[in-house]
Amino acid sequence: MPSRELHLNAAKPADGAPIVAPLRLPYALEMALPTPKENTTALVTGASSGIGADIARELARRGHGVTLVARREDPMLVLADELTGAHGVRAEVIAADLTDADARAGLPAQLDARGLTADILVNNAGFTTMGPVHRADRAAELALVRTNVEAVVDLCTLFVPGMVTRHRGAVLNTASTAAFQPLPGQAGYGASKAFVLSYGRAMGAELRGTGVTVTTLCPGPVETGFAEAAGMTDDEAGEALPKFMWLPAADVAKAAVDGLDAGRAVVIPGAANRAAASLAHLAPKAWILPLMVQRHPALKQAPKP
Questions:
Q1: What architecture (CATH level 2) is domain 36-300?
Q2: Which residues are within 8 A (CB) of 90 and not within 5 positions of it... i.e. 6 or more apart?
Q3: Annotated active-site residue in 32, 91, 168, 189
Q4: 244: pLDDT confidence band, cut at 50, 70 and 90?
Q5: Mean pLDDT over residues 81-110, rounded?
Q6: Predicted structure pTM score
């Protein structure tokens, strides 16, 4: 049975080999999810819990080896054992703080040391801050940008060129339905997810015909403990967003990987969330933003300046 410590030899180009422009393939012949191989992996960030852990489960169920990346090592070790035992796939753990540029830069070498090539990249790590901007914590806001925006750009820059050279790869970036409108009370989070959506759409257009596809996942509210981690109670979260819009993380992960396999540019799980995203995108901002300010728990509780 495969183990997390399995080391394989990956083929490498000869030193000094010329850089050749990638062959562009007929778009109709592209495959979204590459066929899993012994020396390929799906690199999944934010894999210690929630959507990231369930995306790893879904990929492993389809036969893909996974490399789990997050700050918390212990939950990932448990998940890696689960995936290997349930699906017979290779799974390894890399504990890394994705706000740290040096930690991100070291990921390709860590895969190379294991003889692995990342054919699938899942940029799922992210978090939110709560409250009005004028009361924001500077360190927390900058950490949000580094995780939600900078890490996505950095990891795509690190791993996508190799995919293009191999004419094989798939990228899944996690945004949010918050990407479709400004989000008072979580201004930095909404803006970061709008960036991820725009970035993914643009990169997908650039890569059309190369054998590499890009999918942006835009979930609505998900039952993951995400709101609680941000300091919002279940009652407050349910008041801000109706319960019928909330989906289990496993359902969101399945929709995400199904969309990735189909080569879809954007995936919004749940009919209610798709309707809400369309409405928010099209509704006049002068009308919708005051309503959002009234309903957001973090703004209701904030004292007047």
A1: 3-Layer(aba) Sandwich (3.40)
A2: 2, 3, 4, 6, 38, 41, 65, 66, 84
A3: 189
A4: low
A5: 98
A6: 0.83
